[in-house]
TrEMBL record:
Family under the similarity heading: Belongs to the CFA/CMAS family.
Keyword Nucleus part of the UniProt annotation: no
Xref: Gene3D superfamilies: Vaccinia Virus protein VP39
Spans through the membrane: none
Gene Ontology BP annotations: lipid metabolic process; methylation
One function term, GO molecular function aspect: methyltransferase activity
Family matches, as InterPro entries: CFA/CMAS (IPR050723), Methyltransf_25 (IPR041698), SAM-dependent_MTases_sf (IPR029063)
Methyltransferase domain ranges (all copies): 43-137
Signal peptide: none
Protein name: Class I SAM-dependent methyltransferase
Origin organism lineage: Bacteria, Bacillati, Bacillota, Clostridia, Eubacteriales
Length: 224
C-alpha cells in the first residue's frame, strides 16, 4: 500500500471516522463457530482499523491480534484494549508483511481491507495469510466484487483496479476518492486461494436508496 493511501487512512482515523463500534455479524458467526474461547486461541485481524473486531474477540476470551497501516487506528485500538483490561494487542504493519512467526494463528480475518490493494500486494498478502496460519487454521475474507456500485468509478490502473473518483458526496465512495480499489471476480479468487483447502466463496449484496446502488461483496472462508 503506497504512502498516499497511508496518509489518507491516517487522516480519516485522526478525524475519528471509520470507527464503527460493533462487530460485523459474519465475524461474530466466524468466531463463535470456530474457536475455543479459553484465552488460548490466537486470532489475527488484518487491517483492524479502530479495533472493533479485535476488541470483540478479546471480550470473548480470545487472544486477539490486530495489524493496520494506520498508526492512529492502532493507537486507538490499544487504548480501548488497555482501558477495558482486554487480552489483545495491535501494531502497525502492512497486509503483505505480517510481523509474526510461521504457523502462529488458529485463525485470521481480513474484513473489507484487501480491495484497497493492487494485485501484487494482494498476492503477497494471501501468501502471508498462509504462512502465519497454523495447519488446519481458518480464515475469513470479505472483498468487493465487480457488482459493486463503485466498480468503474474512476481511472482504471490495472484490470478491475481503479483510483476512485466519486462526484456524489452523498455516496460512501466520496470518502474513498483518490484511493486504490480492486474489484474481485470469482475465478480470480479461486486461483488466489488454490493453496488452501475447503475454500467457500459466497456473495452478499446490499442495496441503498431504494435499490439505486448497491454494495456487492464476496465472502471467502478457507482452511490451511
Amino acid at each position: 500500500m503506497d504512502s498516499n493511501m497511508k496518509i489518507k487512512w491516517e487522516k480519516l482515523h485522526s478525524q475519528g471516522r471509520f470507527r464503527p463500534k460493533y462487530p460485523a455479524g459474519i465475524v461474530v458467526q466466524f468466531v463463535f463457530r470456530n474457536f475455543e474461547r479459553n484465552g488460548e486461541s490466537k486470532v489475527l485481524d488484518i487491517g483492524c482499523g479502530a479495533g472493533r473486531h479485535v476488541c470483540f474477540m478479546a471480550k470473548e476470551n480470545i487472544h486477539a491480534y490486530g495489524v493496520d497501516i494506520s498508526k492512529e487506528g492502532v493507537d486507538f485500538t490499544n487504548k480501548i484494549l488497555k482501558q477495558e483490561g482486554l487480552n489483545g494487542e495491535a501494531q502497525v504493519a502492512t497486509v503483505d508483511q505480517l510481523p509474526f512467526k510461521d504457523d502462529y494463528f488458529e485463525g485470521l480475518m481480513c474484513y473489507g481491507v484487501l480491495y484497497y490493494c493492487k494485485k501484487d500486494e494482494i498476492q503477497k498478502a494471501i501468501k502471508e495469510m498462509y504462512r502465519v496460519l497454523k495447519s488446519d487454521g481458518l480464515g475469513l475474507l470479505v472483498v468487493r466484487n465487480t457488482g459493486d456500485y463503485r466498480f468503474g468509478v474512476g481511472k482504471e490502473i490495472e484490470n478491475n483496479t481503479f483510483i476512485i473518483e466519486e462526484k456524489d458526496e452523498n455516496k460512501c465512495a466520496f470518502n474513498e476518492n483518490g484511493m486504490t480499489m480492486h474489484f474481485f471476480v470469482r475465478e480470480e479468487l479461486k486461483e488466489l486461494f488454490k493453496e488452501f483447502r475447503n475454500v467457500e466463496i459466497d456473495e452478499i449484496i446490499e442495496t441503498h436508496n431504494n435499490g439505486k446502488h448497491n454494495d456487492a461483496n464476496f465472502i471467502i472462508k478457507f482452511q490451511k
